[in-house]
Amino acid sequence: MKNTLVLTIDIGNSQTAIGVYKNTNIEASYRLITNDKTTSDEIFFRINDLAKHFGRKSKEITHIGLSSVVPQLVRPWIKALNAYFNKPIQIVSAKNCLDLPIAYPRPESVGPDRLCNVIALRSLGLLNGIVVDMGTASTFDVLHNGGFAGGLIVPGISTAMDTLTEKAAMLLPVPIKWTNKFVAKNTGDAMRAGILYGFLGQLDFLISGIKKEMNMEDIPVIATGGWGQMLLKRTNLIKRYDPYLTLEGVRLVAINGNGFDNSDAEE
After folding, report:
1. Could you give the C-alpha distances from 171 to 36, 193, 219, in angstroms and in order?
2. Catalytic residue among 113, 133, 189, 242
């Protein structure tokens, strides 16, 4: 399909990623703080501000795709997008994921972000692969024989820090950055080393375990998510980092999906 201008929205637990694609190339991307109490009116004005910043008129958008792991935000986003663009919206779901086979007894329980990641991985021409999405939660998802084979979910790096400082009275939040030693000489570095090197060890163990269980030792591993870039140079297990992998999955569903939702009900 030629001359497409696709608006993609990926609503995560902590941040909402927005991308604008001209054909297959991303022209602009934005990140907003996810607020599960936001209204359709607030979203409408956010969209208006971003559209002005990007310099595109609403009628220029040809396709819209939406993925959300925050169910209560789907309705207000649909309402705001309908009001602003007056175009069909493709909602990513197990019923609208480009016929991706899903090896779950209850396919509808799979997060749409995970589906987007595997769809994007498949679009690279791969039949087998692993996607590690490092966000609020870190997900490890497996593409096997062209389908979603399953995966696992662990707490993300920032979530680990939040939990540690919330539950331990003497531990205060510190910026998350690499330390040079495992054996730290102060509490802040002890927390940083424990969280980052701990996640790195977990990454190695889980990827190795997945490969062994699936009997696929040579499959590529692609990372995405906010913490992926930070881990990339510390491991040789990750073949590639793509910050827009999830949005690319949303783009593919926006163009080729079959699940429009134009509901204008009140949120």
Report:
1. 28, 14, 40
2. 113
Token readout for 200 is 């790195």
Among candidate residues 62, 67, 56, the one with its CA nearest the CA of residue 111: 67
**SS3 for 178?**
coil
What is the per-residue pLDDT across 33-44, written as a single tens digit (0 to 9) for each?
999 999 999 999
pTM assigned to the model: 0.93
pLDDT tens digits, residue range 13-66?
A: 999 999 999 999 999 999 999 999 999 999 999 999 998 888 888 899 999 999
**Catalytic site includes residue 113:** yes
User: CA 106, CA 265: separation in Å to the nearest integer?
Assistant: 27
H helix or E strand, kind and range, residue 63 = strand 63-68
Pick the CATH number of 5-94+250-256 from 3.30.420.40, 2.60.40.1180, 3.40.50.300, 3.40.30.10: 3.30.420.40
Residue 95's pLDDT band, with cuts at 50, 70 and 90, is very high
